[in-house]
Amino acid sequence: MTRSDVIAAIATPPGRGGIGVVRVSGRNLQSLALKIVGCVPEPRRASLTRFRDENGRVIDQGIALYFPAPQSYTGEEVLELQGHGGPAVMNLLLASCLSAGARLAQPGEFTLRAFLNDKLDLAQAESVADLIDASTEEAARCAIRSLQGEFSNAIHVLVQALTDLRMLVEASLDFSEEEIEFISGRELEVRLEHLRHQLEQVLSSARQGSLLREGIWIALVGQPNVGKSSLLNRLAGEEVAIVTEIPGTTRDVIHQVIEIEGVPLHLLDTAGLRETEDVIEKMGMARTRSTIDRASIVLLLVDSRVGITPEDRAILASLPPGLRLIVVHNKTDLLESEPNSTLSIAPATTDIWVSAKTGEGIGLLQQRLLEMIGWQPSAGEGAFMARQRHLSALTAAQTHLEAACALATSMDQVELFAEELRLAQLALSSITGEFSADDLLGEIFSRFCIGK
Ligand SMILES: Nc1nc2c(ncn2[C@@H]2O[C@H](COP(=O)(O)OP(=O)(O)OP(=O)(O)O)[C@@H](O)[C@H]2O)c(=O)[nH]1
Ligand SMILES: [Mg+2]
């Protein structure tokens, strides 16, 4: 990745729209601007101009915006050409930029340059992509908070506290002969405890943000005809899957994303599991099995009128260990008496009685799901839009801090103690990108859309 050349891309989505934008960034954009718009537009002022191709033919007319370095998105000179948003116009405009000396930008390259030019740190750069990708309003709000630096600030506070502590501990190491106490045992304890508490809070907010970003995968599993597809439709609020009274209706796995309190839930409706000779149904059941592997929660549906049968137990026994499970007793509208809530398939399972037909019990099921994934209703406001990379770094920092705390009780291994603090700090700094390998940058920015 070179930093000095001029890059260009269509920044608006493909297809037709009122306005389309071609964005150009790099050094010495004046000559490119002269070729395309015939002048260097006044900085940061909207100029109505004509856009021309390499032969001087008019392609479109629109607004040109010129941002001199370093006050631009990338920190370089940036030219934004806003034309009519049709694919042909946009392609001609982009081609004109390319023939005037730009090259096509790679995905995320504008934001990569912004990062390299210290316009934003790595966590903020990632939140740009998260904001664009946000599928719920809560996720978008969470991403904008990270983009504005709330997550990075929380990390900086932790890093600063660790740095201060390390300075004192390392001074004690350097002057160990001289009987000077740089930090008392009591103060050390207080500071460590405070750090632990702060880190725990950041981790908890990051976990909430991660739920908003990633959502959770939930498989609906059970015997044929128990109402899996009906429950999917009820939760989705629309007729996504075919429902009939014929057992074996669903064959392919149906994926539908729903949102509860802003948390995206990926529901997977599957083919009912039973002994069968039907070749297509067998294939559907094989898909059910591989779908279960993708899910972290299984809703095992049973018919509440029949209760739990040996077939249901066989399905339960075939589920991979470690999966979180809710047993959903469906069709309560057909029950003649109150459901027998002492019936349970296994100790400590969560059982819920619902009617996919009338909607009874569905609110409770939604609440149980949110509790199971650890969603805290009021947490959305303070959540940080965290990725797996951030959670891993925070957890690593926590492990090193715990190790440091364990060593702090005797302090006869001060070097090891200091090293654990250093490693905790390193893990935290990787979040904001103070020490990032090129391959990590490549991995992060290649997932962006082109033009951002
Ligand atoms: N009364 C009543 N009927 C229901 C309820 N849920 C599902 N049904 C009916 O049960 C039958 C089977 O429903 P489906 O949702 O297709 O069942 P499924 O588990 O997806 O079945 P397969 O796709 O064959 O595995 C249909 O006739 C539904 O209308 C419910 O809560 N109450
Ligand atoms: Mg079905």
Description:
By secondary structure, the protein is of the alpha/beta class. It folds into three domains: 7-119, Probable tRNA modification gtpase trme, domain 1 (Gyrase A, domain 2, 2-Layer Sandwich); 128-211 and 387-433, tRNA modification GTPase MnmE domain 2 (Four Helix Bundle (Hemerythrin (Met), subunit A), Up-down Bundle), CATH 1.20.120.430; 215-378, Rossmann fold, CATH 3.40.50.300. Helix content is 44%, strand content 18%. Helix 6 packs antiparallel against helix 7, helix 6 (150-174) runs antiparallel to helix 13 (414-432) and helix 7 (185-214) runs antiparallel to helix 12 (388-408). The protein is flat, with a radius of gyration of 29 Å. Bound molecules: guanosine-5'-triphosphate and magnesium ion. Magnesium ion (MG) binds next to helix 8. Guanosine-5'-triphosphate (GTP) is lined by residues 222, 224-230, 243-245, 247-250, 271-272, 330-331, 333-334, 355-357.
Topology summary:
Layout: E1 7-10, E2 17-26, H1 30-37, E3 47-52, E4 58-67, E5 77-85, H2 87-99, E6 103-104, H3 109-116, H4 122-133, H5 137-147, H6 150-174, H7 185-214, E7 216-222, H8 228-236, E8 254-260, E9 263-269, H9 279-294, E10 297-303, H10 310-318, E11 324-330, E12 350-353, H11 362-372, H12 388-408, H13 414-432, H14 438-445
Parallel strand pairs: 1-6, 7-9, 7-10, 10-11, 11-12
Antiparallel strand pairs: 1-2, 2-5, 3-4, 4-5, 8-9
Helix pairs in contact: 4-5, 6-7, 6-13, 7-12, 12-13
This protein binds guanosine-5'-triphosphate and magnesium ion.
Domain TrmE-type G: 215-374
Subcellular location: Cytoplasm
Binding site for GTP: 225-230, 244-250, 269-272
